[in-house]
Amino acid sequence: MLHTVSTLLILGAGGDLASRLLLPAVGQLLTEHPDRTVHLVGAGQEEFSHDEWLERVRASFATCDAASAGVDRLLESTRYLHVDVTKPHELERLLAACEGAPAIYFALPPQIAILVVKALADVSLPPHTQLALEKPFGTDEASAKALNALVGRLVPEEDIHRVDHFLGRSTVFNLLGLRFANRIFEPLWNNTHIASVDIVYDEQLGLESRAGYYDHAGALVDMIQSHLLQVLAVVAMEPPSTLDAADLRDAKGLVLRATKIWGGDPVRSSRRARYTAGSIDGVSLPAYVDESGVDERNHTETLAEVTVEVDTWRWAGVPFTLRSGKALGARRREIAVTFKSASHVPRGLHGESQPTILRILLAPDTMCLDLNLNGPGDPFELERVSLRADFGPGQLLAYGEVLEGILDADPALSVRGDTAEQCWRIVAPVLAAWKADTVSLERYAAGSSGPADWKTLG
Predict the structure, then answer these.
(1) Largest CA-CA distance found in the chain, in angstroms, rounded
(2) In terms of Cα–Cα distance, which of 161, 189, 180 is closest to 415?
(3) What is the reported pLDDT for 322?
(4) Which pLDDT score, from 0 to 100, does residue 336 have?
């Protein structure tokens, strides 16, 4: 049974995550659902007067044009406490400022979040308290297991939200609707008909002042270990009986437990590269190693590509390639499902018969189906055409959908503890190979499509 939570307690409320993403998401949620009441309590080491805190909240709400009776009620009741969130007695003071069972959002650096989790062990939490933690969840499989054990002593698993904003509700439901509500796709969704699946998230943005985190994570941990493996799980899952949390999370868990590095060879099945100086849309970008806060000795990659296999009857023999990078010439956020070539094309048809490709573009969500059709003019000439349809965008932005699930105590789209561990297990051989320098760190100019010898996916 789900329990609606009325108080959102943000730890680290004075930080960038809260002001840029969480608070606008709260404002948008209340604008779309004006009858909802949310009490907001902010906490952190920054010193804000009540007026300064209120102005901070108002400024964040203004970025999304938040306005409703629910917004007005929140502004009348919100408060901020200057506390050390790693101290049990200070956490008790925060909980006393909450109405009912709170949703506690850890908008904190990972090392501080762990200290808070340990401090909460000495605090009595109200029943149905929700805990929301940002990635990275651990630094490897062992640390993820240890963190799961710590958090699991505080609240039940169904009250833990390991946040992955990448999979907002609309994106997941769009994928599920496409697959399971259309007879034309699901019977073909297997290794008999599909040759390969590519999941690509290429960004034009560079480091964007994130060296403190990114230079110790890199593209593999930042994007593939977390976000893109979660996308793979939804693309490859078996049909769940329902869209309830238990069924969805079980289906994703089964996929990830069956996923491993292609051929068991991380050297041949992974590539990494780092951008050098270049320009994107006329704007010059320095080499990654010249960015502020970067330590070249970390050998951090800004472009990563890993091929995995899902060892099930449905997907045996189908390569899934996951790629993500920064400072690339074109923004590309896409799932490309490449079908096998037609078994026989009658003689007399001219032109190249290419494989059918289903492209699912993310943010905004769009579907394109690339087909071979007879074009105008010569009726025997094959031409490439693309059928396009836009998915429903959903009412809320990604973090709005995340917060709605947390406040509704619905963990359906959060990352379950065992799957967080599995994601680390999957990439562990690649991380080890890269640490041993058995996979070369290649170079590409900012604004390019990546190293010249890397093939274009999809």
Answers:
(1) 81
(2) 161
(3) 98
(4) 97
Q: How many residues does the chain have?
A: 458
Q: CB 363: neighbour CB atoms within 10 A? A: 15
| Alpha-carbon distances, residue 294 vs 225, 394, 443 (angstroms) | 21, 38, 16
**C-alpha distances out from residue 389 to 16, 34, 130, 361, 385, Å:** 35, 31, 37, 10, 13
Q: Which of 324, 206, 178, 199 is nearest to 255 (CA)?
A: 199
For residue 106, the Cα-to-chain-centroid distance in whole angstroms is 17
**What is the distance in angstroms between the CA of the first residue and the CA of the last residue of the chain?**
42
- For residue range 147-197, list pLDDT tens digits in order: 999 999 999 999 999 998 777 667 888 889 999 999 999 999 999 999 999
Strands across the sheet containing 130-133: 79-82, 39-44, 7-11, 102-106, 130-133, 160-162
Strand 283-285 versus strand 259-261 pairing type = unpaired
| Domain-wise residue ranges, the chain | 7-134, 169-395+416-445
Residues of the chain by 3-state class (helix, strand, coil), percent to 5: 35, 25, 40
Tokens representing 313 are 């009857």
What stretch of H or E contains 131?
Answer: strand 130-133
Residue 20 is classified by DSSP as: I
* Catalytic residue flag (residue 3): no
Residue 84 C-alpha from the chain's centroid: 29
The model scores a pTM over 0.85: yes
d(CA 447, CA 429): 30
Are 45 and 84 in contact, with CB atoms under 8 Å apart? yes
How many helices (H) and strands (E) would you count in the chain?
13, 18
DSSP state of 291: S
How far is CA 203 from each of CA 207, 300, 303, 345, 362, rounded to the nearest angstrom? 10, 17, 10, 38, 12
Q: Which of 39, 128, 161, 227 is catalytic?
A: 227
The token pair at 61 is 């709400």
Under CATH, which number does the domain 169-395+416-445 receive?
3.30.360.10
Q: Residue written as tokens 């970025």?
A: 63
Topology of domain 7-134 in CATH is: Rossmann fold (3.40.50)
Write down the residue that tokens 């990654």 correspond to: 288
Give the integer Cα–Cα distance in Å for 267 and 427: 12
* Collapsed DSSP state (helix, strand, coil) of residue 73: helix
